Amino acid sequence: MDKxxxxxxxxxxNKVGGIWTVLTSKxxxxxxxxxxxxxxxxxxxxxxAAVEFMESQPPQYIKDAMANIKLxxxxxxxxxxSSANDVNLILIDAKDFENKHINEIKKDFWDxxxxxxxxxxxxxxxxxxxxxxxxAVIEALSKTIKQSIVVQVHEWLSAGAILYLKYKNVKIPTxxxxxxxxxxxxxxxxxxxxxxYVIANTGITPDMPYKYGVxxxxxxxxxxxxxxxxxxxxxxxxxKEANIILGxxxxxxxxxxxxxxxxxxxxxxxSMRVNAKKKLDNFLNAYFLPYYDINPSxxxxxxxxxxxxxxxxxxxxxIDALGKLDKMLTDGSYVIALIAVPSGTIGxxxxxxxxxxxxxxxxxxxxxxxxxFDSVIASSIELEEGNVDKAYSKIINDSKRLIKQLRRxxxxxxxxxxxxxxxxxxxxxxxxxxxxxxxNNSVENHVKVVFYPKYLAVGDELLxxxxxxxxxxxxxxxxxxxxxxxxxTPLEAAAYMSISFTxxxxxxxxxxxxxxxxxxxxxxxxxxxxxxxxxSITQIAKDMLKIALMDDDxxxxxxxxxxxxxxxxxxxxFLPVYLEAYDAALRRL
Length: 589
Prior knowledge:
By secondary structure, the protein is of the alpha/beta class. It has three domains: 3-259 and 572-588, 3-Layer(aba) Sandwich (Rossmann fold); 260-345 and 415-569, 3-Layer(aba) Sandwich (Rossmann fold), CATH 3.40.50; 358-406. The chain has helices at 18-34, 46-52, 60-68, 95-113, 122-141, 155-167, 182-192, 196-202, 208-211, 215-227, 236-245, 266-288, 315-328, 350-378, 385-406, 429-436, 467-473, 488-495, 507-514, 533-549, 552-566, 571-588; strands at 3-8, 38-43, 53-55, 75-81, 87-93, 148-154, 174-178, 230-233, 252-253, 300-305, 335-340, 345-348, 419-421, 447-451, 476-478, 499-503, 523-526. A nine-stranded mixed sheet has the order 3-4-5-2-1-6-7-8-9, with helices on both faces. It has a six-stranded parallel sheet with strand order 14-11-10-15-16-17, sandwiched between helices. Helix 6 (155-167) links the parallel strand 6 (148-154) and strand 7 (174-178). Helix 6 crosses helix 10. The longest helix has 29 residues, at 350-378. It is globular. The two termini are 15 Å apart. The mean pLDDT is 89.
């Protein structure tokens, strides 16, 4: 059957989190599968659109549909989504429409779906109005597209499109996918250490959506699940959670893959790692050498990253394990732990700037001395021997003078973060947990820590690294989430030849344990489910120690194995389940 797929997400053309990665990573496969019969609909964010959207003249069927849309106050843009292999993309700016009609939409959804939005937060209105408008756009498109249409909708933020089509009795099959439940995430985010497995034993009560302040979002999500033609979840973990929290069992588990066609080759990864390591070494030298000796070439690099969800993402577990590791390591063994978790900042610390500029000027001066020395050596046959001695002495004297300038007395240890936070450091959970574990970057610490609360990008103030360069240079990545519906980050780390650690709370971890029959190396699933917290942390610290002390050859074998595993998670393996869901939606309508 000739199908036309319309995919609706708040993150289409609007990079926010994991769903943007899902959509962009599978875009080349969608083009192969559907060609021009694929259209994404997203939220118009002018800042993001300027980066990844190229407006163009719409085809006739879209022009005709736009002319028939009855809602006032909408601005609709058509173009190519450059971050997603130039697939067709409609962006909707519904702000004026929201200002005029949000209360009417809420009333209609209460009358028809019993969605209680009376005390909804401000961040509920915008996606509700936008997704309602997306439904109106789809209704108009249904009259101009000749093929059989299936509408794929992601998360509660887009569920209003399904509800609009249902409310207006538009006969189009819809597929609603949850990547996490609103209530499950809220409970876990509060520090409740709750996920599908815990909820399965305790259940939920009617007051919980109100208690956690997510009633309107929860009921919108639930209405989306019950009113979609087909309901799917991205892992068994989410499917179980949705069945308990929403009261509906998903029809399919649609696991998300990665774009293995465009992953760097091994030699490209090696080159990326070498170049990234030079940048990191410059940063670490500038950061630590003013206080005490450090040799970055002999240090293992452990990383963690993600949204600042302290308990959800397991940063507390990671730091507590680092604290134990610090006591296990002996003289001569060191680890750098890089915690790349964006937060509010107002600039780089003055002492860090001063040290960085001093170090780079020293490095530049010594590089020039070495260059001159090489020139003297190259012509030494024709020169007096004293010239060589003189050039060598200059390097030694300049080194002593400049290093003395760098190593002037410092009253403190290297800071835990190079940035000035936009709030008191004493209120920061990561910094407080580091201090609790005596990870203070003292000379005695075998685990040195850098909390980097900025998005990684080329051209930033200090590291000058992309996220993927960071993955490529790391020895191991630790993504120990206690609430992780699937878990892209450990899979991405493995794809970039980083040894990767995930948890058995995550959908990815559960998939490896229960569904992956080929065995796996280079990716480790930490057993946290049902274990005492202290036992889990002790085991993680022991695993960290093995990696920290492992020789380079064995580390390389694990990195290659991790990369091999990641290449088994391509979209060509998992997209067929999505296609099966679309066919089922067409049959069920």
